[in-house]
Specification:
single chain; 636 residues; 28% strand; 16 helices; alpha+beta
């Protein structure tokens, strides 16, 4: 086993990997950006190294800086977590080439084979794994899209070769939309994955998203001292263990929100077929370590929820995620197998500690992503805020993976996830009931979250019956119910409030009236705040450890931008990256025209002019990183 592992990630997944390392007696190293210098993963690690400024491209995505940090720390392995460099085959190859450092993941050549979606489709097709009808080579022109649509029918999905999670995917409803969708998919592919190649698939209208967790031994490393696993031995099906499936059908804009396992829709026969298809495909790809094989299952919208999908139900290979996933915790709760430890064992040359015969799924598990988003506002991510109160739930069958603590400021430079709540019970019905209890216990104040949305879903008939599909949230869910849930159970960001200059002080008191306890909130305008000692809580008691001051951005805004009288400055409403600038100085724009496209929280956002005018100046370019409030365009 390794002596010291550097975790090339941040937040809850970094802490989760470090916990596995600690149980194995392995020291841990954190890397962090300027924005994360007080992050939870930094506090947890044995030692930590700064790898650059807040912008991910200059820190967490800087492969050279990460490897240099590993050398400085004397780490003998790098675990990438998920996101950032986790599926970057070039980075994996860089680690494999570094003397004395082992890559904890699949070999770089296997990552490259499966990371290119057209190549992965060919591998699976050759292994007799069903694939969605589509192209197995990249397409470059709009005519290829329209010809495919004419042959197979619309809608057509245009997908980035390096894509995943809905990024780099566009749905074409008609030939008129083909050109714009093709350019957008290529642009996202280049921005997210440095690869603008795209391919086509028939777009399935009502699918379920079912994925199979696998771990695969490395026969080339068996009995060795570890390494990158690039020997001559090939992976056979006996080297691949599948750990059951997860149902990730509850999605919004192709981003998973709630995951569960086993799938409430599959029969045992269909479940076994999909699991064996995953093992077959992974072995054919010569893949080792942990990964997830994702499938689309064609759901009958009129299915009786008491009747699971039978063995004749069509299912299709979607993609392989060549890393550990956000929702791996669901599988761990069902199997009792620590997947991160298995990753470390395979990478170190110890080999898997389990075989297929050892795998038994018990009970039911559901994971809720606790994101700092407003579900009532199209899941808009929070721009700022701090965890004034953070009190996660507990009790039997309740697991919380997190890194933030009470008093921490929300870091919005990367993603919106605060934590993951995972609930287990002997069956699905009890799991739903336990989930209600756990979500009601989750006390979060100061940051808007999607906890109210999760509570709503536990009373939603389609979700409770298990008949929802990947389209349900985007196309069928009543938005008014979401807004009502947010109003009933939600909290506001600590940054929200009146825009006037009058100072507002909020105080909380507990009082008793006729022996009954009440929590009372008072708001005083113009009153001085009562100072609270640093590290202290909102009430009495010991106060706990003193916390370090939280990180603040050192970047100034564009306060020096001149706006002529009667003109308008178009500001960034959130932190993100400029994907395209659609106007030039001197252009005439009308109200509602798109002036640029801003990527934030893995989604494209059109920035529009609220009124017409002439473009006086352009202050950003393609690829620029911007903060909330930065001036993008000035109109006159």
């Amino acid at each position: 086993m390794f002596d010291k592992v550097l975790v090339a990630n941040r937040g809850e997944i970094a802490v989760r990997v470090m916990r596995a390392c600690e149980e194995l007696g392995v020291d841990t190293v954190a890397v962090y950006s300027d924005a994360d210098k007080h992050g939870g993963h930094v506090r947890y690690a044995d030692e930590a190294y700064n790898v650059g400024p807040a912008r991910a491209a200059d820190s967490y995505l800087d492969g050279e800086a990460v490897v240099e940090a590993a050398r400085s720390a004397g780490a003998d392995a790098i675990h990438p977590g998920y996101g950032f460099l986790a599926e970057n085959a070039d980075f994996a190859a860089r680690v494999e080439a570094a003397d004395g450092i082992t890559w904890v993941g699949p070999a770089s050549d296997a990552m490259e084979r499966l990371g290119e979606k057209t190549h992965a489709r060919r591998v699976m097709d050759d292994a007799d794994v069903p694939i969605v009808p589509g192209t197995t080579e990249p397409v470059t022109d709009v005519e290829a899209v329209t010809e495919f649509g004419d042959e197979h029918g619309y809608p057509v999905a245009i997908k980035a070769e390096g894509g995943g999670g809905g990024r780099g995917m566009k749905v074409v409803e008609s030939a008129d939309e083909a050109e714009e969708a093709l350019e957008s998919a290529k642009r996202e592919g280049e921005a997210y994955f440095s690869n603008d190649s795209v391919y086509l698939e028939r777009y399935l209208q009502t699918p379920r998203h079912v994925e199979v967790q696998i771990v695969a031994d490395d026969p080339a490393a068996a009995g060795s001292d570890g390494g990158s696993g690039d020997g001559d031995a090939s992976v056979s099906e006996s080297d691949v263990v599948h750990l059951g499936e997860r149902d990730c059908s509850l999605q919004r804009r192709h981003q998973k929100v709630i995951e569960e396992g086993p799938s409430p829709a599959l029969s045992d026969e269909l479940r076994e077929q999909i699991g064996e298809a995953a093992r077959r495909g992974v072995a054919a790809a010569d893949y080792t370590n942990a990964g997830t094989v994702e499938f689309l299952v064609e759901e009958d919208p009129d299915r009786d929820p008491s009747e699971p999908l039978g063995p004749d139900t069509p299912f299709y290979f979607l993609e392989v995620n060549t890393r550990i996933q956000v929702e791996h915790t669901v599988t761990e709760e069902l199997t009792g197998i620590d997947i991160v430890k298995e990753q470390l064992r395979v990478a170190s040359g110890e080999g898997l500690s389990v075989s297929q015969a050892d795998v038994e799924l018990e009970g039911h598990a559901i994971e809720f992503r606790i994101n700092a988003e407003d579900a009532a506002d199209e899941f808009q991510p929070a721009n700022e805020g701090s965890l004034e109160t953070y009190d996660p739930p507990g009790g039997i069958g309740v697991r919380v993976d997190d890194a933030l603590r009470q008093g921490d400021e929300l870091v919005t430079d990367y993603d919106s996830m605060i934590a993951k709540l995972i609930v287990w019970a002997p069956d699905r019905e009890e799991c739903l009931a336990r989930s209600k209890r756990a979500l009601a216990e989750y006390d979060l104040e100061g940051v808007v979250t999607i906890v109210p949305f999760h509570r709503l879903m536990l009373d939603d008939r389609r979700f409770v019956d298990g008949t929802h599909t990947t389209k349900y949230l985007d196309e069928e869910l009543d938005r008014e119910l979401v807004a009502e849930a947010q109003e009933k159970w939600g909290t506001e960001s600590s940054s929200s409030g009146d825009d006037d200059d009058e100072e507002v002080t909020e105080r909380e008191f507990t009082v008793e009236v006729n022996g009954k306890r009440f929590d009372v909130e008072l708001e005083e305008r113009g009153a001085p705040a009562i100072p609270v000692p640093e590290g202290g809580g909102g009430g009495g008691g010991s106060g706990g450890q003193q916390r370090p001051p939280q990180a603040k951005s050192d970047d100034g805004g564009d306060d020096g931008v001149d706006v002529a009288e009667g003109g308008e400055a178009i500001d960034a409403e959130m932190q993100g990256t400029i994907l395209s600038v659609d106007v030039d100085e001197g252009d005439e724009v009308a109200a509602g025209d798109v002036v640029c496209v801003l990527e934030a929280m893995k989604m494209e956002n059109d920035v529009v002019a609220e009124r017409g005018g002439t473009v006086a100046s352009v202050h950003v370019g393609e690829g620029d990183s911007v903060d909330m409030g930065d001036v993008l365009i000035v109109l006159e």
